[in-house]
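Blinded run. Sample ID left blank on purpose so nobody reads anything into the name before looking at the predicted structure. Input follows.
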Amino acid sequence: MTVGRLLWVDREAGTVSRREFGELPALLADESGWVWLDLPEPDEDAAGILTGDFGAHPAAVQDIMERNHVPRLHVYGRTLLLVLHRPGAGEGGHMHYLELDQLIGRNFLVTAHGPRNLKVPLEWLLEETDELAEKMLAGRYLPRGPWEASHRIVTGLAIAEERFVNRLAREVGSLEQKVMDNSAETSPQVFLEDLFKTRHALLTVRTMTSQSAEIYGRAIGLLAGADEAVDKALLDSKDAYDRLSRITASQLDFLAGVTEYHRARTDTKMTIAAERLAVIAAVTLPVTAISSVVGMNVIVNDATQWGWLALLLALMLGLSLVLLRWAKRQGWW
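Blinded prediction complete.
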């Protein structure tokens, strides 16, 4: 059996109340208010209600029942299907896509969550809708219609993403500090993991927000002029997502600058190390070459030729000093 929340918003009385699913047909026929149905995890019973009571298009119902990996917008007659996401941080830097589907009609709003990864607590998906329902039932907020309630929920999604970006910005600042004070060098592998996890999270948010902004741009094109309140809500949501996308992109640019500086410093150290190794190889090359050719003919067990040995050692030392001086002039050390 479907588990969900059914609210009736009475415009005339200015009240919000919980209702049973059996009352749904009568409520949808009542012009004095509108219905909000929230489905935490839609099942086959929920699909039957959407098709039978709300008259939802089969394609819209299928989209609600299945996972969507990008935001979506479709208009079916007088009903609009809107699919949005917000990020959820998982284990090991994995980013979960928390999905919210909305069916918005003239006198109803249906919100559906999921399908979800079993590692994601259901409470993560319900934060925005639970908060709005609590305010409505407590009499602290009364949406005038489905579009106003939808806009309030989407605003909650945008605020949650903004807070997430703010937390990531603090992590970027911490990474920048480690680069500047050289503490990143103490554990470079851990620093690299943190760097790319933060970058991945920022990329995820930028992808979500930019795609959501595109979806609202299409909604404005399809619905502009139909209702002034709807136009205002759509423009505000698009502006919020555009702003978040730009803010996230700027944080990515800043992180890219930090990464570039860290990489340049690391590459420079590697270059210096390679030059010093080249100096060592150059200095020891004549010693190795001369000793490999004539060493066994000068130092033998029964008769060492001391004259030749002294001459060869002097030659080795001289060549090494000449190469060392040449490397100094090249600026290698």
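Unblinding after everyone has recorded impressions. Residues 228-298 form the longest helix (71 residues).
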